[in-house]
Design a protein that fits this description.
The protein is mainly beta. It has one domain: Immunoglobulins (Immunoglobulin-like). The chain is built from one helix and seven strands, in the order αβββββββ. The chain has a four-stranded antiparallel β-sheet with strand order 4-3-6-7, with no helix packed on it. A three-stranded antiparallel β-sheet has the order 1-2-5, with no helix packed on it. Strand 3 and strand 4 form a beta hairpin. It is elongated and about 55 Å long. The relative contact order is 0.28. The mean pLDDT is 90.
């Protein structure tokens, strides 16, 4: 029975297989500065590789700074964004379909908090 279940839904489905890290140029991110995030999809290769589309979410402390980007033609090696406020930012990328592989990075952005906070 377990073999049949593994055929329907393999144990690696929805695993955190995508590695994210800050580039060496962005070791201390600041509000209104450039943040470069690097992606490594190599852990997905054993399960059929990464399959597009990918959805990237950047969640900031304030809802108005939320960002969503879809990659439909090729997986990104690098994503650059400019945080509009200090605080914790979560960058998450995931396969929309296929094995639903994902990865996330929590970034503490320095600088002044927004006036509303």
């Amino acid at each position: 029975m377990a073999d049949r279940l593994d055929e329907i839904c393999p144990p690696y489905v929805a695993d955190s297989l995508i590695a994210l890290q800050l580039s060496s140029d962005t070791l201390e991110p600041r509000a209104f500065g450039v943040v470069d995030v690097l992606f490594d999809f190599s852990a997905c290769d054993v399960n059929g590789g990464i399959v597009l589309p990918l959805e990237l979410l950047v969640t900031a402390p304030s809802p108005e700074n939320f960002r969503r980007v879809f990659f439909r033609h090729q997986p990104p090696a690098l994503f650059t964004f400019r945080p509009q406020e200090a605080g914790r930012h979560l960058v998450r990328i995931a396969e929309v379909f296929h094995n639903r592989a994902w990865g996330a990075l929590l970034i503490n952005v320095g600088g002044e908090l927004s006036p509303a906070r």
